[in-house]
Amino acid sequence: MSSVPGELETAQYEGTRVERSNREVAEIANREYKWGWSTDIESETIPKGLNEDIVRLISLKKAEPDWMTEWRLKAYRHWVQSSEPDWANVRYDEPDFQDISYYSAPKQRPAVKSLDEVDPKLLETFEKLGIPLEEQKRMAGVAVDAVFDSVSVATTHREILAKKGIIFCPISEAIREHPELVQKYLGSVVPRSDNFYASLNSAVFSDGSFVYVPKGVKCPMDLSTYFRINAADTGQFERTLIIADEGAEVNYLEGCTAPRRDENQLHAAVVELVAHANATIRYSTVQNWYAGDHEGKGGIFNFVTKRGKCLGDNSRISWTQVETGSAITWKYPSCLLMGDNSVGEFYSVALTRNHQQADTGTKMIHLGRNTRSTIIAKTISAGQSNSSYRGLVRIMPKALNARNYTQCDSLLIGDRCGAHTFPYIDVRNKTASTEHEASTSKISEDQLFYCQSRGIGPENAISMVVNGFCKEVFDHLPMEFAVEATKLLSISLEGSVG
Amino acid sequence: MSAESTTTLQDDQHKARYLADLARVAPNSAPAWLRQMRAEALTQFRGAALPHTRIEEWRQTNIAPIIETPYESVLEPAPHGLRRADIAPLLYNEEGWTELVFVDGHFDEALSSRGPLPEGAHAGGLREAWHGAEAKIIRPHLGKYLQERNAYTALNSAFLLDGAFVHLPKNAAPGKPVHLLFLMSRHDHPAAAHPRSLIVLEPGSEAQVLVTFAAMDGGADYLNNAVEEIVLGNNARLTYVRVVEEQVQGHLLATTEVHQGRDSRMYSFAATLSGQIVRNQICVELAEENGESVVDGLYLNDGKRLVDNMLSVHHSQPQGTSRISCRGILDGESKSVFLGKVCVHPNAQKTDSRQLNKNLLLSDHASVETKPQLEIYADDVKCTHGATVGAPPQEVLFYFRSRGISEEAARGMLTCGFAGEVIEEIPIEAVRARLHRYVFEKYAPAKVR
After folding, report:
1. Does pLDDT of A220 surpass 90?
2. Has residue B362 been placed in a domain?
3. Maximum distance among all alpha carbons in chain B?
4. Which residues are CB-neighbours of B394 under 8 A, at least 6 positions away?
5. What pLDDT score does A113 carry?
6. What is the pLDDT of residues B145-182, one digit of tens each?
């Protein structure tokens, strides 16, 4: 990331504060998406459109067993009969599902044993993105499964993980090599018929990550996936399945970018997490898909179904997300708290600007006794964007002593943006206790004044206030993600406030 | 409108009884402009879907028992044989009050009593008013504020036969409340009333209006399908209290539309004490600058009842203030729904809004769904909302017991206190006392009582 904040600070602006801020806003508006380049890699893309033959073709290309093909076809048949959800507080032209290519893979698909075999151009791409795989390989830090368009290109650190019995591989590989695990868990959290986009994903998903952490194993490093949509007219439908067996522990990080294109691209992913007794899964996302230009043209439609199942007693699932990209976001990472004493957490920062629209939140379904959930959602709207928090807390009759705490705060920057909250709290048990708090306001003039009176420039003051606003969430991100998130946020916000 | 809101064949069957009754409405019973209004509402009713749980606003509120019952709408005031003594428990009999009684939606002069009103002020039946000199006041307001809410509000307009009309001229302030009692008489077959109220406060005037929905006990199922339109002129002040005391076999669908002018203030309180299915929908629009609205409520729910409070405030202009505070006490196998919606429109800077819904769960089988929502399109605003659901806290019960108070008594006291906090805000003494008494008798343990 360049030192853009510094450039702005040194620029000398004349005139009143309002004029100055107008100029700053214009400057920011003209700033382009940093990750907007596309890589010229020969890729193999199948014809546009979707029908049973395409589903079979995808399955064939992935050399999948028959049960998988059948599974996809069932999902497709369900999808054909379902209709797109319209309850979210977002407005967009319905994508033409027949005008999308459902599979795109870099042509020289390498059967990688080591990174040296990967197409150097691809590696260059990831280098630009800031995930130097070469580095990663040496560093003991993060194991990366990079998904380029729809196919997993390289997975680092596999040997180290394999020693511990941890399986971390592309899901397509898992389908071939660990069918018993995939068959048992795939669709067990997000069924094929769950919703329109989940059905679509189930029918056409081309790749994604698969993680299995065996009993009692604590994963020695953070696992990570990086997603990138490169080819035009393609959708990305990845599928992630993470299973933490009894007493296992794993941290999983996910990041996303896409090149800048005028037309909207569809991203419909499904993520399923399964935590057995005493297991912990932490799932962190920094989402920075291309958000469209300042007129709201182009950008990614991010329609994602993420759900975790706390299957065993004392299990724990924690979602942390920083959402700054995508033209439209429709995403509700959820927890089904089935085991007694299980814990679900959701920490979210969603920032929208220009014409972005986000409808995001979570669902916490309490089924087991003494289950606890915490929801901290921070929403920042700037420009002409709209962002909504939509969350459900449901406490079922058998969830004795269930506890929920929800806090959702919105910060408004500019007078043409919108911030909305749609909480649903459904309690069916008198021993339950739920608390919900929310507030919406603009950046406090007092706080800005205080900072400025102590010699902190307006840009930095805003950045400080916003970062303070989001701190509770950033605290739950792994170190390198927290740094990235803070930077992303300050770059997105510069000049947004007068 | 999504596909879910289109009408279905089944809807047509359920509407048949209403349509047949509508055909019997005497064509010359109203002036031409009103007949026109009814006709438009009829068209709207025909086209509108009856509420079902796939419509977001009704997702948790299943009113199938209302939809599936073929109610006969009461078109004419029928001989009911009621005397003032029969309805005395529902009246306040306070000095200076104007208490108007409406039986099955029709104004009943004989049962009503009138206190002194300032010159030019009017409180009475809507039908007699639109035939008289008040028509010129009614016409610009009636139906103007009711938005296309649902099939039942359209039905109310299509059946617009009578109801209440309260009008205060500029700067008038009667000082004593006007009580509107909407009473269902005993019917031996399912019956429906569609009362309509219009309350107009001209600029600078001040009023207290109390509305009671009740019924005589016994008899068949009934439906009270009420619509109220309230207009506050600039700088007008209104205290509005609704008390729902329907019978166990009674259902109430009540929609209130409030239109507030500049610098106007409204305090409203909706208390739901009884009734099988009750839906209180109160929609406030702060249409001009510096309006202030308080929308408070209390619902006591038990048995297998369903109570739905849908309270919305639209801030259309700058500097509006709104406070929504609603509490529920839930017992038995009852189901409660709360939807609070504060919408701040793009122009409404300096809006200050607070919303709070608290629920006390007394039983393992009661359930509550609460949705305190905010929709904000302006940036210089202060909006908060909160919701809590829970049982009386263990540590508080322990505190009581450590001082020798039984758990039962402690629960009763806590429950009365929980309701008492919101009741205490009601500015009309007699109503406050009545509600305190009701809550005390319902929840305080026998020994204390």
Report:
1. no
2. no
3. 72
4. none
5. 47
6. 887 788 999 999 999 999 999 999 999 999 899 999 99
Please tell me which residue, A248 or A27, carries the higher pLDDT value.
A248
- Predicted confidence at residue A227, as pLDDT, reads 57
Q: In chain B, which among 318-357 make CB contacts under 8 A with chain A? A: 346, 349
Give long-range contacts, CB 8 A cutoff, 24+ apart: B407-411: B408/B445, B409/B445, B409/B447, B409/B448, B411/B362, B411/B445
For residues A137-154, give the mean pLDDT: 50
In this predicted structure, which of A228-242, A405-419, B77-91 has the lowest mean pLDDT? A228-242
How many structural domains compose chain A?
2
CB A242 within 8 A of CB A273: yes
Domain shared by B275 and B403, yes or no? no
Residues A473 and A433 in one domain: no
Q: What is the ipTM of this complex?
A: 0.78
The reported pLDDT for the residue numbered A102 is 77
Q: Does A437 touch chain B (CB under 8 A)?
A: yes
A310 Cβ contact list (under 8 Å, min separation 6)? A275, A316, A317, A335, A336, A337, A338, A339, A342, A343, A344, A368, A371
| Chain-chain contact of A428 with B349 (C-beta, under 8 angstroms) | no
Position of tokens 């300050």?
Answer: A490
Question: Amino acid identity, residue B242?
Answer: R
With an 8 Å Cβ cutoff, are A436 and B372 in contact?
Answer: yes
**Is residue A152 located within the same domain as residue A5?**
no
Token pair in block for residue A232: 């035009």
The answer to whether the CB of B197 falls within 8 A of the CB of B146 is no
A424 at the B interface (CB within 8 A)?
Answer: yes
Please tell me which of the candidates B363, B366, B385 has its beta carbon nearest to residue A421.
B385
Q: Do B387 and A430 touch (CB under 8 A)?
A: no
End residue of a domain, out of B225, B260, B288: B288
| pLDDT tens-digit map of B261-289 | 999 999 999 999 999 999 999 999 999 99
B389 near A CB under 8 A: yes
Range of the domain at B183: 3-288
Q: How far apart (Å, rounded) are the C-alpha atoms in residues A159 and A168?
A: 10
Report whether B356 contacts B326 (CB < 8 A): yes
Return the closest-CA partner of residue A219 out of A139, A285, A280.
Answer: A280
- The percentage of chain B sitting over the pLDDT mark of 90, rounded to a whole number, equals 70
> If we measure between CA atoms, which residue out of A321, A319, A386 comes closest to residue A348?
A321
User: Which of the four pLDDT bands, split at 50, 70 and 90, describes residue A57?
Assistant: confident
- Closest-CA residue of chain B to A445: B380
Rounded-to-integer distance, Cα A452 and Cα A459, Å:
10
Q: What is the mean pLDDT of residues A201-226?
A: 83
Tell the burial category of B435 from Cβ atoms under 10 Å away from its Cβ (0-12, 13-18, 19+).
buried
Domain limits at A24? 1-31+448-498
Q: Is residue A38 part of a domain?
A: no
Token digits for B338? 């709360």
The pLDDT value given to residue B447? 66
Q: Are A263 and A297 in contact (CB under 8 A)?
A: no
- Whether A260 and A236 map to the same domain: the answer is yes
- Residues comprising chain A, all counted: 498
How, if at all, do strands B98-103 and B178-184 pair? parallel
Which chain B residues in 367-386 lie under 8 Å from chain A, judged by CB atoms?
Answer: 367-386
In percent, how much of chain A has pLDDT > 90?
Answer: 17
Of B288, B314, B337, the position where a domain reaches its end is B288
Q: What is the pLDDT of residues A265-312, one digit of tens each?
A: 788 889 999 999 999 999 988 877 777 777 777 778 888 899 999 999
Inter-chain CB proximity A440 and B376 less than 8 Å: yes
- Token representation of residue B373: 């929502």
Task: Looking at the structure, tell me whether residues A381 and A468 fall in a common domain.
Answer: no
Q: Is residue A188's pLDDT more than 50?
A: yes
Total tally of structural domains belonging to chain B: 2
Tokens encoding A200: 């679509």
Contact B400, B243 (CB under 8 A): no
pLDDT for res A136: 43
Q: Are residues B398 and B271 in the same domain?
A: no
